[in-house]
Amino acid sequence: MGEVLGSAVTLSESHLSDEDAMALPLQHESMTLTQTLISGPDEKLNRRIPIVIMKESKLKAEDLAAFDHTGPIGISVGYEEGSKGKVLALAIVDENQGLLIELNGKKGNGWRNSTSNSKRGQARRLLEETVLCRAIAPLVGFDMAPLVLSICNSFGLVVSNAIDVQDTFSPDDRNELVTVKTAMGEGFIAMSPKERNIERLFTSRFYDPEERRCKVELASKAWLAQLLVAEFLPQEARETVRRIDLGKLDERKVIV
Prior knowledge:
alpha/beta; Nucleotidyltransferase, domain 5; 8-stranded mixed beta sheet; two-stranded antiparallel ribbon; globular; 3'-5' exonuclease domain-containing protein
């Protein structure tokens, strides 16, 4: 399905240019995402996007430094198959790079009050403060409300300043393809959706760390979400759309 959803190749030092070698931390697994969801001549549609893949306990501040900007960041999550919404991984992607974080620690928010100062607890605080609750610009995704609740229920992570792309572009029809087509509009010819690829992308919501296809899908969903907001939601409109802010709720009523 690589050709359908996007192509991803695992990179090693011998495959990287000098510029990419400096940009990517080679101690982590990585891949290159070449999207096949939207066609058009725009360079950003044909860009090779480096995606770093890591365990949450390995996350450091420098891994998130590239996301300190005012543009939208797309987010998506992959669930454990057969579970009741347990999150196994999340992807954050902007127009230039992405990070796929595999969450494999204890369930719940015990890390928040832990005195052990574990690497996993430090990583979750860092992720929450730097990306999930950033005030400078929105975090955007498909089905954002259940996404936000699922990572809170699974790992106690709180998201604020989040935009649901379906609610923003097609509130009366949450089908992902409808959302994409509505956002782009009928008269927009510089970009066109590859309908079958988009439909196939959203047929699965599960994540298997051994399956490259799952990693491509996760990164592709986050990339598509940020593209829609970056290209089709003007800055002034971004200030007025409804936000999801879990930080305003009593966390004890959310964690189960």
